[in-house]
Amino acid sequence: KDIQYIYSNYYNKLEIFRFDSNVGKYVGYTAYGVKNAERFNSNPSEIARRKAQRETYCQHNIGVYYRTA
């Protein structure tokens, strides 16, 4: 089963940056977001934490989602 974990950060309804488990890193969508994405991507523990959240959150709840879909 393919599962994608996305963590997005918004300000004033505008997406600033996002972590996408399929990409494996943060991507910035504004000047401020690009700066933060670069900072987060340079920290291996931050990337490992987000990748682990895919397993912790998505894998743990996938059975519930498939039963109710």
Automatic annotation (TrEMBL):
Sorted UniProt keywords: Glycoprotein
One GO CC term, this protein: MHC class II protein complex
Any one of the GO BP annotations: immune response
Keyword Aminoacyl-tRNA synthetase annotated: no
Residues in MHC class II beta chain N-terminal domain copies: 1-66
Superkingdom of origin: Eukaryota
InterPro entries reported in the protein's UniProt record: MHC_I/II-like_Ag-recog, MHC_II_a/b_N, MHC_II_b_N
Pfam families, A to Z: MHC_II_beta (PF00969)
Entry annotated with the keyword Amino-acid biosynthesis: no
Record's protein name: MHC class IIB antigen
Lineage: Eukaryota, Metazoa, Chordata, Craniata, Vertebrata
